[in-house]
Amino acid sequence: MMIASAAHRSRPFRFGLTTALPRAGADARDFARTVESAGFDVLTFADHLTPAISPFAGATAAAMATERLHVGTLVLNNDFRHPVETARESAGVATVSDGRFELGLGAGHMKSEYDAAGIPFARGGIRVGRLEESVAVVRALLDGDAVDLDGAHYRVHAGAGALLAPPAHRVPLLIGGNGERVLRLAGRVADIAGFAGITHNHDATEVALTHFGPDGLDDRIAVVRDAAGDRFDEIELQALIQAVVVTEDRETAAADLAGAIGGVGPADLLDSPFVLLGTHEQMADMLVERRRRFGVSYWTVFDEWAGRPSAMPDLAKVMSLLR
């Protein structure tokens, strides 16, 4: 069992809610204020070519409606935008929010969305290769550095500050996933390394709960640690909680959830760091223990999705116990 470093165990908790629902006007502003008043630290927006809010538009609206709340993308599909455009939009949201924007980037995985939009869907290694090059461009532009890249996927040549005005506040970069190459990229360059505990097949028609248990998360963190070297303690560790179920009967709830998910046993769900099952008090204790064990201090839950209710009310109660 890997024991988290002292630096990670002592990091303060941060809590995020991720959403994609296309709320309009006053509803969007009221929702962001509700998330802020519930005690969340970050409101992030998913990036899918479905009837969902554009992540940059959602993040901007939420930032303008709130005072303390950070906003971000979880995660932006790198293939949907050129990295110069990603940097430009990120700099804009970071500027108007006075530094409350966090950029999450991923390699993309939903083949059906690519097909519908007429975007070529390459194999995973190529998509990750594009992400690696894109991250180098985005980070340099946001930091106000020159870019001189002739890569396999992008060619960008610009002097410092030539393509955009870098924001006054540094934009934190989250890179997340489950694959080794993406997590090694996170270890090398990210401010936040994100873990999901799930893997999609090539066309995202199936989901496998790989590295979903305690040993699996240990293994994925070890990948980030190895790639990060001396900078590992500077990286914030984030995990996406896949299910939140309030119950006084954890075993029965785990059996019900296992039946709904398929391909996983109740015992695996009871032990998984990516699931919260129990009373609010038990959940608070679980998160304290998970920070001690894994060093993960930033936890994100889902808003309404796939017919499931939002986890916001229950996590708000958990946060109040922790704070």
Keywords:
two-stranded antiparallel sheet, TIM Barrel, 12 helices, single chain, 8-stranded parallel beta barrel, globular, 323 residues, 15 strands, alpha/beta
- Compute the number of strand runs: 15
The outline comes out as globular
- The H-and-E topology, N to C, reads as HEHEHEEHEHHEEEHEEEHEEHHEHEH
Helix content: 40-55%
**Taking Cα atoms only, what radius of gyration do you get, to the nearest Å?**
19 Å
The poorly predicted ranges are none
For the sheet with most strands, the description reads: 8 strands, parallel, barrel
Taking all residues together, what is the mean pLDDT?
Answer: 95
CATH architecture: Alpha-Beta Barrel
What is the count of helical runs?
12
For the record, the count of structural domains works out to 1
Supply the helix-strand structural class: alpha/beta
Strand order of the largest sheet: 1-2-3-5-8-9-12-15
β-sheet strand percentage? 15-25%
CATH topology title: TIM Barrel
* Full CATH superfamily name: Luciferase-like domain
Output the CATH class name. Alpha Beta
Put the structure in a nutshell.
The protein is of the alpha/beta class and 323 residues long. 42% of the residues lie in helices and 19% in strands.
Explain this structure to me?
The chain has 323 residues and is α/β, with parallel strands linked by helices. It has one domain: Luciferase-like domain (TIM Barrel). 42% of the residues lie in helices and 19% in strands. It has helices at 6-9, 25-37, 55-65, 83-96, 111-117, 124-142, 180-189, 214-228, 250-261, 266-271, 280-294, 312-322; strands spanning 14-19, 42-45, 70-73, 76-77, 101-106, 147-150, 155-158, 173-177, 192-195, 199-200, 207-208, 236-240, 243-246, 275-278, 298-302. It has an 8-stranded parallel β-barrel with strand order 1-2-3-5-8-9-12-15, surrounded by 7 helices. Strands 6-7 form a two-stranded antiparallel sheet. Strands 10-11 form a two-stranded antiparallel ribbon. Strand 4, helix 4 (83-96) and strand 5 form a beta-alpha-beta unit. The chain is globular. The two termini are 28 Å apart. The model has no long low-confidence stretch (mean pLDDT 95).
